[in-house]
Design brief:
The protein has helices at about 1-40, 50-65, 70-75, 80-90, 100-110, 115-125, 125-135, 140-160, 170-175, 180-195, 210-220, 225-240, 275-300, 300-310, 315-330, 335-340, 340-355, 360-380, 380-390, 395-400, 415-485, and strands spanning about 180, 210. By secondary structure, it is mainly α.
Amino acid sequence: MFKKETNKRDKKWEQKLEEDAAQRNTRKRSKKKGDAQSVVTEQPNFQSMPCAYIFESCCDIIKKLCAGNQMAVNEIMRTELPQRLISLLTNTPPLHPLTFTHLASLTKLVKNADDEIQHKMFEMGIIQALVKLLSFGYDDRKMAEEIVEAISSVVIVGLSKGSAAEPHPYRDILEKNEIRDEVDTIMNQQEDNKTKQKEKKQPQEDELKRVIDVLYKYGVQKAINERVRSITSMIIGWLYRSVPIPVRFVPPVDVNFTLNTSQYSGSDRESESPMRKKDKDKGKQKLDDKVLLQQQKDGMNVVVNLQKAALNGHDVDQINAIDSLSAIAECQYNHIYIASKQFLLTISQFILTADYDQKSSEAAVLQNALWLFLRLMQKGNQITQRSISDIAPHDRIKELANLHQQQNAFIDVSKDLISNAVKLHSWLADMAHMQRLAELKGKIVDKSAEERRKFIESQEEEDDDDESGDDKSKNGEKKQKMTIIQE
Protein backbone atom coordinates (compact mmCIF):
# COMPACT_ATOMS: atom_id res chain seq x y z
CA MET A 1 0.00 0.00 0.00
CA PHE A 2 2.76 2.29 0.92
CA LYS A 3 4.60 1.55 -2.33
CA LYS A 4 1.54 2.39 -4.45
CA GLU A 5 1.09 5.74 -2.71
CA THR A 6 4.72 6.59 -3.19
CA ASN A 7 4.53 5.70 -6.89
CA LYS A 8 1.54 7.99 -7.36
CA ARG A 9 3.30 10.76 -5.46
CA ASP A 10 6.44 10.37 -7.59
CA LYS A 11 4.41 10.58 -10.80
CA LYS A 12 2.76 13.79 -9.60
CA TRP A 13 6.15 15.32 -8.80
CA GLU A 14 7.50 14.31 -12.19
CA GLN A 15 4.52 15.90 -13.94
CA LYS A 16 4.96 19.06 -11.91
CA LEU A 17 8.67 19.26 -12.71
CA GLU A 18 7.94 18.81 -16.42
CA GLU A 19 5.37 21.61 -16.33
CA ASP A 20 7.82 23.94 -14.54
CA ALA A 21 10.52 23.15 -17.08
CA ALA A 22 8.13 23.84 -19.95
CA GLN A 23 7.17 27.20 -18.42
CA ARG A 24 10.80 28.18 -17.98
CA ASN A 25 11.57 27.33 -21.60
CA THR A 26 8.68 29.43 -22.83
CA ARG A 27 9.83 32.35 -20.65
CA LYS A 28 13.38 32.09 -22.00
CA ARG A 29 12.13 32.04 -25.59
CA SER A 30 9.92 35.07 -24.98
CA LYS A 31 12.76 36.88 -23.22
CA LYS A 32 15.14 36.22 -26.09
CA LYS A 33 12.53 37.44 -28.52
CA GLY A 34 11.97 40.56 -26.44
CA ASP A 35 15.70 41.17 -26.13
CA ALA A 36 16.10 40.83 -29.86
CA GLN A 37 13.29 43.30 -30.39
CA SER A 38 14.79 45.70 -27.84
CA VAL A 39 18.20 45.45 -29.52
CA VAL A 40 16.64 46.29 -32.84
CA THR A 41 14.80 49.28 -31.41
CA GLU A 42 17.94 50.56 -29.62
CA GLN A 43 19.96 50.66 -32.83
CA PRO A 44 20.54 54.22 -34.01
CA ASN A 45 18.34 55.47 -36.78
CA PHE A 46 20.97 56.43 -39.31
CA GLN A 47 18.36 57.87 -41.66
CA SER A 48 17.07 60.36 -39.07
CA MET A 49 20.36 61.42 -37.38
CA PRO A 50 23.42 59.88 -39.00
CA CYS A 51 25.70 62.92 -38.50
CA ALA A 52 25.05 63.22 -34.76
CA TYR A 53 25.75 59.55 -34.10
CA ILE A 54 28.87 59.45 -36.27
CA PHE A 55 30.19 62.71 -34.77
CA GLU A 56 29.66 61.44 -31.22
CA SER A 57 31.39 58.15 -32.02
CA CYS A 58 34.35 59.84 -33.69
CA CYS A 59 34.83 62.22 -30.76
CA ASP A 60 34.75 59.31 -28.34
CA ILE A 61 37.39 57.45 -30.37
CA ILE A 62 39.66 60.52 -30.52
CA LYS A 63 39.30 61.07 -26.78
CA LYS A 64 40.30 57.48 -26.01
CA LEU A 65 43.17 57.50 -28.51
CA CYS A 66 44.70 60.67 -27.05
CA ALA A 67 44.54 59.55 -23.42
CA GLY A 68 48.24 59.32 -22.58
CA ASN A 69 49.20 58.21 -26.09
CA GLN A 70 51.85 60.57 -27.44
CA MET A 71 52.27 58.60 -30.67
CA ALA A 72 48.55 58.83 -31.44
CA VAL A 73 48.59 62.58 -30.82
CA ASN A 74 51.54 63.01 -33.20
CA GLU A 75 49.79 60.99 -35.91
CA ILE A 76 46.54 62.94 -35.50
CA MET A 77 48.41 66.24 -35.75
CA ARG A 78 49.77 65.21 -39.15
CA THR A 79 46.24 65.17 -40.52
CA GLU A 80 43.59 67.84 -40.98
CA LEU A 81 41.52 66.32 -38.20
CA PRO A 82 42.34 68.94 -35.50
CA GLN A 83 41.35 71.82 -37.76
CA ARG A 84 38.14 70.06 -38.82
CA LEU A 85 37.35 69.26 -35.20
CA ILE A 86 37.82 72.89 -34.16
CA SER A 87 35.59 74.02 -37.02
CA LEU A 88 32.81 71.58 -36.11
CA LEU A 89 32.88 72.34 -32.38
CA THR A 90 32.95 76.12 -32.72
CA ASN A 91 30.43 76.32 -35.56
CA THR A 92 27.60 78.73 -34.80
CA PRO A 93 24.82 77.99 -34.60
CA PRO A 94 26.14 74.62 -33.32
CA LEU A 95 25.33 71.62 -35.48
CA HIS A 96 24.84 69.48 -32.37
CA PRO A 97 24.46 70.34 -28.67
CA LEU A 98 27.89 70.49 -27.05
CA THR A 99 28.61 67.47 -24.84
CA PHE A 100 31.60 66.59 -22.69
CA THR A 101 32.59 63.85 -25.15
CA HIS A 102 32.75 66.42 -27.97
CA LEU A 103 34.80 68.76 -25.82
CA ALA A 104 37.14 66.11 -24.41
CA SER A 105 38.12 64.97 -27.90
CA LEU A 106 39.78 68.37 -28.36
CA THR A 107 41.03 69.04 -24.83
CA LYS A 108 42.64 65.60 -24.48
CA LEU A 109 44.41 66.20 -27.77
CA VAL A 110 45.75 69.50 -26.42
CA LYS A 111 46.77 68.37 -22.93
CA ASN A 112 48.54 65.20 -24.11
CA ALA A 113 50.54 66.94 -26.85
CA ASP A 114 54.18 67.90 -26.36
CA ASP A 115 55.38 71.52 -26.25
CA GLU A 116 56.13 71.77 -29.96
CA ILE A 117 52.72 70.45 -30.97
CA GLN A 118 50.95 72.70 -28.48
CA HIS A 119 52.75 75.70 -29.95
CA LYS A 120 51.58 74.63 -33.42
CA MET A 121 48.06 74.30 -32.07
CA PHE A 122 48.26 77.85 -30.73
CA GLU A 123 49.19 79.03 -34.20
CA MET A 124 46.13 77.14 -35.48
CA GLY A 125 43.94 79.20 -33.11
CA ILE A 126 43.32 76.62 -30.41
CA ILE A 127 43.03 79.18 -27.58
CA GLN A 128 40.49 81.23 -29.54
CA ALA A 129 38.49 78.04 -30.12
CA LEU A 130 38.66 76.98 -26.47
CA VAL A 131 37.60 80.42 -25.25
CA LYS A 132 34.63 80.27 -27.60
CA LEU A 133 33.74 76.83 -26.22
CA LEU A 134 34.00 78.28 -22.71
CA SER A 135 31.34 80.82 -23.63
CA PHE A 136 29.11 77.87 -24.62
CA GLY A 137 29.76 75.69 -21.57
CA TYR A 138 30.82 78.08 -18.78
CA ASP A 139 27.82 77.05 -16.66
CA ASP A 140 28.84 73.36 -16.68
CA ARG A 141 31.46 72.66 -14.00
CA LYS A 142 33.07 69.67 -15.71
CA MET A 143 33.27 71.39 -19.10
CA ALA A 144 34.53 74.70 -17.71
CA GLU A 145 37.33 73.08 -15.71
CA GLU A 146 38.37 70.94 -18.68
CA ILE A 147 38.54 74.00 -20.96
CA VAL A 148 40.56 76.28 -18.66
CA GLU A 149 43.00 73.46 -17.88
CA ALA A 150 43.61 72.98 -21.62
CA ILE A 151 44.11 76.74 -22.13
CA SER A 152 46.57 76.91 -19.22
CA SER A 153 48.53 74.00 -20.70
CA VAL A 154 49.07 75.96 -23.93
CA VAL A 155 49.87 79.24 -22.15
CA ILE A 156 52.50 77.52 -19.97
CA VAL A 157 54.26 76.37 -23.16
CA GLY A 158 54.46 80.01 -24.23
CA LEU A 159 56.28 80.90 -21.00
CA SER A 160 59.27 78.84 -22.12
CA LYS A 161 59.60 80.80 -25.38
CA GLY A 162 61.48 83.61 -23.64
CA SER A 163 63.24 84.55 -20.42
CA ALA A 164 61.39 85.34 -17.20
CA ALA A 165 61.86 89.07 -17.80
CA GLU A 166 60.34 89.04 -21.31
CA PRO A 167 56.64 89.52 -22.10
CA HIS A 168 54.57 86.46 -22.95
CA PRO A 169 54.73 85.85 -26.72
CA TYR A 170 51.01 84.98 -26.99
CA ARG A 171 49.63 88.09 -25.24
CA ASP A 172 49.68 90.49 -28.17
CA ILE A 173 47.84 88.03 -30.41
CA LEU A 174 45.13 87.33 -27.83
CA GLU A 175 44.70 91.05 -27.17
CA LYS A 176 44.40 91.94 -30.85
CA ASN A 177 42.34 88.98 -32.09
CA GLU A 178 38.59 89.31 -31.69
CA ILE A 179 35.83 86.72 -31.49
CA ARG A 180 32.08 87.00 -31.29
CA ASP A 181 30.57 86.76 -27.84
CA GLU A 182 27.92 84.24 -28.85
CA VAL A 183 25.98 84.48 -25.60
CA ASP A 184 25.50 88.23 -26.02
CA THR A 185 24.59 87.71 -29.66
CA ILE A 186 21.92 85.12 -28.81
CA MET A 187 20.50 87.36 -26.08
CA ASN A 188 20.33 90.28 -28.49
CA GLN A 189 18.57 88.12 -31.07
CA GLN A 190 16.06 86.96 -28.46
CA GLU A 191 15.34 90.57 -27.56
CA ASP A 192 14.80 91.31 -31.23
CA ASN A 193 12.39 88.39 -31.49
CA LYS A 194 10.44 89.71 -28.53
CA THR A 195 10.10 93.11 -30.17
CA LYS A 196 8.98 91.29 -33.35
CA GLN A 197 11.56 92.82 -35.62
CA LYS A 198 11.34 91.36 -39.09
CA GLU A 199 14.96 91.90 -40.05
CA LYS A 200 17.39 89.45 -38.59
CA LYS A 201 20.00 91.11 -36.42
CA GLN A 202 23.43 91.27 -38.06
CA PRO A 203 26.66 90.99 -36.06
CA GLN A 204 27.54 94.42 -34.73
CA GLU A 205 31.00 95.70 -33.93
CA ASP A 206 30.30 95.68 -30.19
CA GLU A 207 29.64 91.91 -30.37
CA LEU A 208 33.25 91.36 -31.41
CA LYS A 209 35.42 91.25 -28.31
CA ARG A 210 39.06 90.58 -27.62
CA VAL A 211 39.81 86.96 -26.86
CA ILE A 212 41.33 87.76 -23.49
CA ASP A 213 38.27 89.81 -22.48
CA VAL A 214 35.92 86.95 -23.34
CA LEU A 215 38.15 84.63 -21.32
CA TYR A 216 37.96 87.02 -18.35
CA LYS A 217 34.19 87.32 -18.68
CA TYR A 218 33.38 83.60 -18.61
CA GLY A 219 36.39 82.39 -16.61
CA VAL A 220 36.34 85.03 -13.86
CA GLN A 221 33.21 87.16 -13.86
CA LYS A 222 30.80 84.30 -14.62
CA ALA A 223 32.94 81.43 -13.30
CA ILE A 224 30.88 78.52 -12.03
CA ASN A 225 33.28 77.82 -9.13
CA GLU A 226 36.47 79.05 -7.47
CA ARG A 227 38.72 76.59 -9.28
CA VAL A 228 37.71 77.86 -12.72
CA ARG A 229 38.19 81.42 -11.46
CA SER A 230 41.62 80.59 -10.02
CA ILE A 231 42.94 78.83 -13.14
CA THR A 232 41.68 81.63 -15.39
CA SER A 233 43.39 84.18 -13.13
CA MET A 234 46.63 82.19 -13.44
CA ILE A 235 46.32 82.28 -17.23
CA ILE A 236 45.84 86.06 -17.24
CA GLY A 237 48.74 86.50 -14.82
CA TRP A 238 51.08 84.48 -17.05
CA LEU A 239 49.97 86.37 -20.16
CA TYR A 240 50.82 89.71 -18.51
CA ARG A 241 54.30 88.70 -17.47
CA SER A 242 56.64 91.71 -17.07
CA VAL A 243 54.05 94.19 -18.40
CA PRO A 244 51.46 96.31 -16.53
CA ILE A 245 48.28 94.33 -15.98
CA PRO A 246 45.21 96.22 -17.29
CA VAL A 247 43.12 97.95 -14.65
CA ARG A 248 39.97 96.18 -15.88
CA PHE A 249 41.38 92.89 -14.55
CA VAL A 250 42.24 94.32 -11.10
CA PRO A 251 39.25 96.40 -9.98
CA PRO A 252 39.63 98.10 -6.58
CA VAL A 253 39.08 95.93 -3.51
CA ASP A 254 38.76 96.79 0.16
CA VAL A 255 41.70 94.91 1.66
CA ASN A 256 40.79 96.10 5.18
CA PHE A 257 37.14 95.13 4.87
CA THR A 258 36.02 93.46 8.11
CA LEU A 259 32.68 92.68 9.66
CA ASN A 260 32.26 93.43 13.36
CA THR A 261 29.82 90.78 14.53
CA SER A 262 30.13 91.60 18.22
CA GLN A 263 27.28 94.06 17.99
CA TYR A 264 25.01 91.19 17.00
CA SER A 265 25.79 88.96 19.97
CA GLY A 266 22.72 87.42 21.54
CA SER A 267 23.67 88.17 25.15
CA ASP A 268 21.13 90.92 25.72
CA ARG A 269 18.73 90.42 22.82
CA GLU A 270 16.04 89.04 25.12
CA SER A 271 15.83 92.31 27.04
CA GLU A 272 15.53 94.38 23.86
CA SER A 273 12.26 95.68 22.55
CA PRO A 274 10.77 94.07 19.40
CA MET A 275 11.38 97.29 17.46
CA ARG A 276 15.04 97.32 18.52
CA LYS A 277 15.45 93.68 17.48
CA LYS A 278 13.84 94.40 14.11
CA ASP A 279 16.19 97.33 13.49
CA LYS A 280 19.22 95.17 14.37
CA ASP A 281 18.05 92.39 12.07
CA LYS A 282 17.74 94.88 9.24
CA GLY A 283 21.22 96.21 9.99
CA LYS A 284 22.66 92.68 10.02
CA GLN A 285 21.00 91.93 6.68
CA LYS A 286 22.51 95.07 5.18
CA LEU A 287 25.97 94.11 6.42
CA ASP A 288 25.54 90.54 5.16
CA ASP A 289 24.63 91.96 1.76
CA LYS A 290 27.67 94.22 1.98
CA VAL A 291 29.90 91.24 2.74
CA LEU A 292 28.47 89.31 -0.22
CA LEU A 293 28.90 92.31 -2.51
CA GLN A 294 32.49 92.78 -1.35
CA GLN A 295 33.26 89.10 -1.94
CA GLN A 296 31.85 89.39 -5.45
CA LYS A 297 33.99 92.46 -6.10
CA ASP A 298 37.08 90.68 -4.77
CA GLY A 299 36.34 87.76 -7.10
CA MET A 300 36.64 90.06 -10.10
CA ASN A 301 40.23 90.96 -9.16
CA VAL A 302 42.73 88.60 -10.79
CA VAL A 303 45.50 89.29 -8.25
CA VAL A 304 43.18 88.70 -5.28
CA ASN A 305 42.12 85.38 -6.83
CA LEU A 306 45.77 84.39 -7.22
CA GLN A 307 46.54 85.31 -3.62
CA LYS A 308 43.60 83.22 -2.41
CA ALA A 309 44.74 80.25 -4.50
CA ALA A 310 48.32 80.68 -3.27
CA LEU A 311 47.20 80.52 0.36
CA ASN A 312 44.24 78.13 0.26
CA GLY A 313 44.45 76.11 -2.96
CA HIS A 314 45.57 72.55 -3.59
CA ASP A 315 49.26 71.80 -4.14
CA VAL A 316 49.29 72.26 -7.92
CA ASP A 317 47.07 75.34 -7.75
CA GLN A 318 49.31 76.85 -5.05
CA ILE A 319 52.43 76.28 -7.15
CA ASN A 320 50.88 77.78 -10.28
CA ALA A 321 49.26 80.70 -8.45
CA ILE A 322 52.56 81.82 -6.87
CA ASP A 323 54.31 81.31 -10.22
CA SER A 324 51.70 83.51 -11.91
CA LEU A 325 52.15 86.19 -9.23
CA SER A 326 55.91 86.04 -9.85
CA ALA A 327 55.29 86.62 -13.56
CA ILE A 328 53.22 89.72 -12.76
CA ALA A 329 55.92 90.86 -10.29
CA GLU A 330 58.40 91.17 -13.18
CA CYS A 331 56.82 94.61 -13.75
CA GLN A 332 57.30 97.10 -10.89
CA TYR A 333 53.97 98.77 -11.68
CA ASN A 334 52.12 95.60 -10.65
CA HIS A 335 53.64 95.58 -7.16
CA ILE A 336 50.92 97.91 -5.90
CA TYR A 337 48.49 95.01 -6.37
CA ILE A 338 50.72 92.20 -5.10
CA ALA A 339 52.72 93.52 -2.14
CA SER A 340 49.96 93.87 0.43
CA LYS A 341 51.28 93.52 3.97
CA GLN A 342 48.88 90.77 5.03
CA PHE A 343 49.70 88.60 2.00
CA LEU A 344 53.46 89.03 2.44
CA LEU A 345 53.18 88.16 6.14
CA THR A 346 51.34 84.94 5.31
CA ILE A 347 53.91 83.93 2.69
CA SER A 348 56.69 84.73 5.16
CA GLN A 349 55.07 82.48 7.76
CA PHE A 350 54.84 79.70 5.17
CA ILE A 351 58.56 80.04 4.34
CA LEU A 352 59.32 79.82 8.05
CA THR A 353 57.49 76.52 8.57
CA ALA A 354 57.43 74.74 5.18
CA ASP A 355 59.18 71.41 4.62
CA TYR A 356 62.02 71.70 2.09
CA ASP A 357 62.38 67.97 1.42
CA GLN A 358 61.72 67.41 -2.29
CA LYS A 359 59.52 64.43 -1.44
CA SER A 360 57.17 66.78 0.40
CA SER A 361 54.36 68.53 -1.45
CA GLU A 362 55.37 71.81 0.21
CA ALA A 363 58.84 71.90 -1.35
CA ALA A 364 57.71 73.17 -4.77
CA VAL A 365 55.45 75.78 -3.16
CA LEU A 366 58.37 76.90 -0.97
CA GLN A 367 60.62 77.19 -4.02
CA ASN A 368 58.11 79.45 -5.78
CA ALA A 369 57.50 81.50 -2.62
CA LEU A 370 61.23 82.26 -2.39
CA TRP A 371 61.23 83.19 -6.08
CA LEU A 372 58.30 85.58 -5.56
CA PHE A 373 60.10 87.39 -2.74
CA LEU A 374 63.26 87.50 -4.86
CA ARG A 375 61.46 89.11 -7.83
CA LEU A 376 59.80 91.67 -5.56
CA MET A 377 63.24 92.54 -4.16
CA GLN A 378 64.98 92.69 -7.52
CA LYS A 379 62.24 94.57 -9.39
CA GLY A 380 60.74 96.60 -6.54
CA ASN A 381 61.32 100.16 -5.44
CA GLN A 382 62.79 101.09 -2.06
CA ILE A 383 59.42 100.85 -0.31
CA THR A 384 58.77 97.32 -1.58
CA GLN A 385 62.33 96.24 -0.82
CA ARG A 386 62.09 97.53 2.73
CA SER A 387 58.74 95.77 3.21
CA ILE A 388 60.23 92.45 2.09
CA SER A 389 63.32 93.01 4.24
CA ASP A 390 61.21 93.72 7.33
CA ILE A 391 58.82 90.79 6.80
CA ALA A 392 61.07 88.01 5.43
CA PRO A 393 62.44 85.43 7.92
CA HIS A 394 66.17 86.13 7.50
CA ASP A 395 67.46 83.26 9.62
CA ARG A 396 65.27 80.69 7.88
CA ILE A 397 66.33 81.91 4.42
CA LYS A 398 69.97 81.74 5.50
CA GLU A 399 69.38 78.16 6.67
CA LEU A 400 67.87 77.24 3.29
CA ALA A 401 70.76 78.92 1.48
CA ASN A 402 73.26 76.76 3.38
CA LEU A 403 71.52 73.45 2.67
CA HIS A 404 74.03 72.61 -0.06
CA GLN A 405 76.69 72.29 2.64
CA GLN A 406 74.76 69.58 4.44
CA GLN A 407 75.24 65.98 3.36
CA ASN A 408 72.11 63.99 4.19
CA ALA A 409 71.18 60.93 2.19
CA PHE A 410 67.64 60.94 3.58
CA ILE A 411 66.77 64.51 2.54
CA ASP A 412 66.62 65.52 -1.11
CA VAL A 413 66.47 69.27 -1.73
CA SER A 414 65.83 70.89 -5.10
CA LYS A 415 68.78 72.80 -6.53
CA ASP A 416 66.41 75.54 -7.71
CA LEU A 417 65.08 75.94 -4.16
CA ILE A 418 68.61 76.37 -2.80
CA SER A 419 69.51 78.73 -5.65
CA ASN A 420 66.47 80.93 -4.93
CA ALA A 421 67.33 80.96 -1.23
CA VAL A 422 70.97 81.92 -1.93
CA LYS A 423 69.97 84.81 -4.20
CA LEU A 424 67.30 86.06 -1.82
CA HIS A 425 69.66 85.84 1.16
CA SER A 426 72.25 87.83 -0.78
CA TRP A 427 69.73 90.55 -1.58
CA LEU A 428 68.49 90.70 2.00
CA ALA A 429 72.07 90.86 3.29
CA ASP A 430 72.88 93.70 0.88
CA MET A 431 69.70 95.47 1.93
CA ALA A 432 70.61 95.11 5.61
CA HIS A 433 74.15 96.36 4.87
CA MET A 434 72.76 99.38 3.03
CA GLN A 435 70.45 100.13 5.94
CA ARG A 436 73.38 99.97 8.37
CA LEU A 437 75.39 102.29 6.13
CA ALA A 438 72.46 104.68 5.96
CA GLU A 439 72.12 104.66 9.74
CA LEU A 440 75.88 105.21 10.14
CA LYS A 441 75.79 108.02 7.61
CA GLY A 442 72.91 109.58 9.47
CA LYS A 443 74.86 109.45 12.71
CA ILE A 444 77.89 111.03 11.00
CA VAL A 445 75.72 113.75 9.53
CA ASP A 446 74.14 114.37 12.92
CA LYS A 447 77.57 114.46 14.55
CA SER A 448 78.98 116.85 11.97
CA ALA A 449 75.92 119.03 12.34
CA GLU A 450 76.49 119.15 16.10
CA GLU A 451 80.13 120.05 15.57
CA ARG A 452 79.15 122.79 13.10
CA ARG A 453 76.69 124.18 15.65
CA LYS A 454 79.34 124.27 18.35
CA PHE A 455 81.81 125.95 15.98
CA ILE A 456 79.26 128.62 15.06
CA GLU A 457 78.48 129.23 18.71
CA SER A 458 82.18 129.56 19.52
CA GLN A 459 82.63 132.01 16.66
CA GLU A 460 79.73 134.06 17.89
CA GLU A 461 81.26 134.12 21.38
CA GLU A 462 84.60 135.30 19.95
CA ASP A 463 82.82 138.00 18.00
CA ASP A 464 81.08 139.13 21.15
CA ASP A 465 84.43 139.26 22.97
CA ASP A 466 85.97 141.32 20.17
CA GLU A 467 83.09 143.75 20.24
CA SER A 468 83.39 144.18 24.00
CA GLY A 469 87.18 144.77 23.65
CA ASP A 470 86.60 147.48 21.05
CA ASP A 471 84.15 149.20 23.35
CA LYS A 472 86.70 149.22 26.19
CA SER A 473 89.43 150.73 23.97
CA LYS A 474 87.04 153.41 22.75
CA ASN A 475 86.13 154.31 26.32
CA GLY A 476 89.86 154.56 27.21
CA GLU A 477 90.51 156.91 24.30
CA LYS A 478 87.60 159.11 25.36
CA LYS A 479 88.95 159.31 28.92
CA GLN A 480 92.40 160.25 27.60
CA LYS A 481 90.92 163.03 25.51
CA MET A 482 88.99 164.36 28.49
CA THR A 483 92.11 164.55 30.67
CA ILE A 484 94.02 166.40 27.92
CA ILE A 485 91.25 168.98 27.59
CA GLN A 486 91.11 169.54 31.33
CA GLU A 487 94.83 170.19 31.43
